[in-house]
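User: Please predict the structure of the protein below. I'd like the answer in structure-token form so I can feed it into my own downstream comparison script.

Assistant: Understood. Taking the following sequence of 310 residues as input:
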Amino acid sequence: MKCIVCKKEAVIKLPSHHSAFCVEHFLQFFLRRVDKAIRRYRMFHANAKILVAVSGGKDSLVLWSSLLELGYDASGIFINLGIEPNSDIAEDKVKQFAKENNAQLHIVDVKDYLGATIPEVNKIVKKPICSVCGMVRRYILNSEAKRLGYSVLATGHNLDDEAATLLGNTLHWYEGYLKRQYPTLGEEQGFVRKVKPLVLCSEKETLAYAVIRQIDFDSERCPFSRGATSQFYKHILNLIEHDMPGTKQNFLCEFFRKMSGNIYNSSEKDKLTPCEICGYPTSAGKKCSFCRLKEQIGGETYMSLLEKVV
């Protein structure tokens, strides 16, 4: 197997692109894919101040690495969720990456916002903890991005993640989620701009980049993620991809192309109002989901923290 560019021995074969690359040309290919996503979906300009949500896993650290490599002003933010020992291990990985790359890192403890760790919340709420954790992380990330003065919040969702999400949303016709599934969500109604620069890069490609760049990432899965439907959807898509290379990319990119004018840019926006407690945009009534969760778990008041955010 030879590199299609230089004819040297290839280290990775990408059937979906009818390609194979050596180390040097794979890294170039990967960074071009990231840059292409940024330009195609108009994510941010060259001088944007970007905050990267990092979990310690391969995708978020690869995203941070690639943005720095492309010359962007990218800082990281890590939320310690109090999941032992996973959270502390992940935090160490993120700190080490920031030190090695001379990059700015912000660390937030979920207890400072919520008054409880995610395992403690799991003992109280009846909803699936993954959805609750996701809501809490989105709240904190948006609030911290605004407080710290960042114009863009970037997450490490890759092609496989987004294709699996699209499959699930389509099978169940979750129109509300479909309306917001796009690589770029503009700043509006109290939300900062959110982008997904790895949307054109597969999980296989991000893993290869991490290995080649010798990025020390946390490979342990969250103990609460076992049985997640997203893993099942990924498995189904991988079965199809094996026999029909390029299916995941076509499925996702065609959705973005065909539906962006009808759904993403629709004038029918979800009506959001400020939460009466914290001011966070919500469609859940007078109080946002985060504040209702805060009341449910009976944590200490956090108005002093909110004053820094609102």
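That's the full token string. DSSP finds 13 helices and ten strands in the chain.
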